[in-house]
Amino acid sequence: MQAKSPSNVKVIDVSHHNGVIDWKKVKADGVLGVFIKASEGLTFVDDKFKTNASGASAAGIKVGFYHYVHPESNTAKSEAAHFASVVSGVKADFPHVLDVEGDAGQVSVSKLTQWCVDWLQEVESLTKHPAMLYTGAYFARDNLTQPLGQWPLWIAHYGVTTPLANDTWSEWAVFQFSENERVGGISGDVDMNAMEKAFWDKYANSNIPQPLSPEDDVKVVVNDQLASFGRIIDGSTFTPLRQLGDSLGIPVSWDSSTSTPYFDGKPVTNFKLIEDRTYIGVRSAGEMLGATTIHWDSANRKVYIYY
C-alpha cells in the first residue's frame, strides 16, 4: 500500500448522520469530492441522499454513492437491485461503492468474497456504471480475497499515513484516514479521505484526454497541457484531429466533397484515416498553430508543442 501524498485530492464521505450540509461552504474549504450514502440492506434509503447529491453537485463537488451491505442476511443480487433503484436517475462521477464491514465478517471468507463479486457485477450490469469496494484495513486483510482485487479499493485506517497491507490489493484508490475532521458547512466531525490523483483524473476530470486506441501511446502536450494521444506511423507522430481540436477549443470539420479535413478553417494536407478517425501529423498541426517549438521526448514518448 502506498502512503498519502501531497498530490492526493481532498474527499469526504457523508450520510444522514451529518445533518444539513452547506455545500458551498464545503467546497470553499477545499473539498473536491464526496461519497454519499444512498442505501443499506434491502429497504433502507438514506433520507438525505438526494438532497446531498443535488447540493454537492450544484456546488461543483464531484459525487459518488455508497451502499452498506448485509451479506449475513441477504443475497447480493437483491441488495444490488435495491441500490440500483435508489441511485437510478442520479448522476454519479465516481464508481458506485460496496461498503462491506461489521457483521459481514460473520460470513466465511470464500462466501463473502463471492457475495461481493456478485454485488459488484450486478450493480455494474444494472447501472451501466463502474463499481468499487470500501472496507477497513483489517477487514480487507482478514476477510476478503481474490478476485476482488480487480475492483478499485477505498480503504479505511485511521491515524496512519500508510494503511495496513493485504494480499488482495497492492494499492488504494481512496484512503479514509480520519473520522473526526472538521469541514466548513458541516456541524461536527466528518470522515476525511485522500484520493489518488490518477483516480480523480479518470473519473472527475472528464475533460482530460484519454487514448482512443491502445496504439495511441504517445502524449501530445500543447503549452504544457496534455491535449491528445497519438501514435508513430512511418517515423512520424499522428494524433486524432478531433481530439486535438476539442482539447484546444479549435474547430474541426470535414469537407466530404473533397475528402479534406479542416483545422481552424485551414485545410489539412498531412493526415491519415485510421479506424474511421482522421489523424493529423503532429508537426503539421504545430505548424498550423504557429508553433515556436516542436520537441520530441523519446524517453517519455511525448511531443511538446509551444505556440
TrEMBL record:
PROSITE patterns registered for this protein in UniProt: GLYCOSYL_HYDROL_F25_1, GLYCOSYL_HYDROL_F25_2
The enzyme's first-digit EC class, named in words, is hydrolase
Under the heading SUPFAM superfamilies, the entry gives: (Trans)glycosidases
The keyword Cytoplasm is annotated on this UniProt entry: no
Reactions the enzyme catalyzes:
Hydrolysis of (1->4)-beta-linkages between N-acetylmuramic acid and N-acetyl-D-glucosamine residues in a peptidoglycan and between N-acetyl-D-glucosamine residues in chitodextrins
Residues forming coiled coils: none
Superkingdom of origin organism: Bacteria
| Stretches that traverse the bilayer | none
Listed GO biological process terms:
carbohydrate catabolic process; cell wall macromolecule catabolic process; peptidoglycan catabolic process
- Which GO MF term does the entry hold, naming one? lysozyme activity
Enzyme Commission number(s)? 3.2.1.17
Q: Does the keyword Nucleotide-binding apply?
A: no
Q: Which UniProt keywords apply?
A: Glycosidase, Hydrolase
Q: What is stated as this protein's family in its record?
A: Belongs to the glycosyl hydrolase 25 family.
Name-wise, this protein is Lysozyme
